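Researcher: Next sequence.
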Amino acid sequence: MNNFENVEKKEIETDIMRYKNNSLSFLLCVIAIVCNVAMFLSLYSNTACTPNFQLGIDLLVNVIFLLSCFLAAEKLKTYNVSWSYVAFAIAGIEILRIFWIPTMYLKSGLEDPLKGLNAGQFTFIVIMMVIAAVSLVGAGIITLIKAKRLNAHLKRIEEGK
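Model: Next structure:
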C-alpha cells in the first residue's frame, strides 16, 4: 500500500505543477542577471578601461543579454521547452563573451597596468560570467525535466478521458 501512496503523491505533485510556476528556473535566471550586473559594474566602473567602439558594442550586447535573461526567466517559469534551448544559447554567448572584452582589457592591463584589468579584476569578471552561464544552463535543464514530466502527466490525463 505504501508504494501506491508514493505514486499517488507524485501524481498529485505533478498535477500541482499545472498551477504552480517553475520558481527554481526563474531564480536561476535571476542569479544570471545579478551576476551579469556585477560583472558589468566591475568592468564599466574601472577607469583604467578606456572606452572604445568595442566597449560600446559590448554595452549593447550586455543590455540585450539582460533583457533576454529576463524574458527567458518569465518563459521558463511557465515550463516553456523552447525557451530552455534559448537559455542554453544565451549561456553559450555569455561564455564566448569572456574571450572578447575582458580578455582584451586583461591584455591591455598586462602591457600597461593603467590601461586595463589586473588579474584579480579579470578573475572576478570571469567568475561572474561563468556563474551566469551555469545558472542559465541549470534553468534550461530543470525546465526540460519538469516540462517532460508535466507533459507526460497531461497526456495521461487526456488519455483517461
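Model: The mean pLDDT is 89. DSSP finds six helices and no strands in the chain.
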